[in-house]
């Protein structure tokens, strides 16, 4: 007997190899198919999400306005104190006159007209009288938005087919709106007011300017804190720190901090910055501080990866011609790693911009009608503005919620596009 294996016939060996080859090819084809299916599913959900948001919010950018000539009756306006007059009633009566309607003794028709006219028209009249009191006794034309429910009727969100008791506008108000539009008093166009106004209790007057400015100021604070500190910390850990258990412990903790839920940073900011350091609540400064804590681990990790990508030969060459360790790092290694550093920093800032939970914890959910006056003044930001409008009871705010999300997405797409351009512009291949 012998332990030597019996020779395998050539035909059997060939069949076994072909069978294994066929199996590998089938596995590869299945893997490619699963990958394509995963991409298709992801793109489908992305298209559905963006399509739903755009479909719900694009009508916000269409504005319906009305121009009304209003007689400023001297008997109803006191020149010494013009603020005491009821300008909204004057506008309603002017619209009734334009419609050829007579009000009853209780003023019910004027009240119903007031429900489809924005009080912005009354404020405009008051501003004109304050600026030029000689207008009293004359007819002045003011142009302003319709009430949000009236605009929703023209946008098809409120339909006559719905029973009168189940909609906010009755048949008479819808008839008036049709008549005003047919007469040319109502016009439509791009809603610039949505981008140039701040928050308001009236949906038709609410805009995102205050939230955009607040987001930009908060992001500036975040960038000024997170990027320098993160880059310097990463440079020290990667280039100068000794490799021992303490640096390993720090590295593990930084990686863990990057995965901590964002609301935890909000609780930390509430305890440290507001309760202990007395930083003003709901300000861009405290918001930027909290988001800087959240973005810091990501900046450190991205910077370390960029530094590792620089070939060791660069360091060796610099040291070889007599450069010190500090000169090698700051004159050669860090500049070469800067494209990766900038890309990681921009992406971490874009991620921080979309955070809502930590900002709610530090009181940025309050109603702020104007543009923030400074870094310590009250402000709101785009994600929180979306949160506030979504929880409002007025239907017009729901439309504006989707529009604010579109503005936020555009803001983030621009930042991501900047990161891609920076990477491609300064990318180096070793």
UniProtKB/TrEMBL annotation:
Q: Which domain of life is it from?
A: Bacteria
Q: Which residues cross the membrane?
A: 33-54, 208-237, 257-279, 285-307, 359-382, 402-422
Which CDD domains did the record assign?
A: TM_PBP2 (cd06261)
Q: Its membrane topology, per UniProt?
A: Multi-pass membrane protein
Q: Supply the PROSITE patterns for this chain.
A: ABC_TM1
Q: Which UniProt keywords apply?
A: Cell membrane, Membrane, Transmembrane, Transmembrane helix, Transport
Instruction: Spell out the InterPro entries in the cross-references.
Output: DUF3333 (IPR024573), MetI-like (IPR000515), MetI-like_sf (IPR035906), Phosphate_PstA (IPR005672)
According to its UniProt record, where is this protein located?
Answer: Cell inner membrane; Cell membrane
Q: Where is the ABC transmembrane type-1 domain?
A: 212-418
What the record says about family reads: Belongs to the binding-protein-dependent transport system permease family. CysTW subfamily.
The protein here is known as Phosphate transport system permease protein PstA
Which organism is this entry from?
A: Phenylobacterium koreense
What is the taxonomic lineage of the source species? Bacteria, Pseudomonadati, Pseudomonadota, Alphaproteobacteria, Caulobacterales
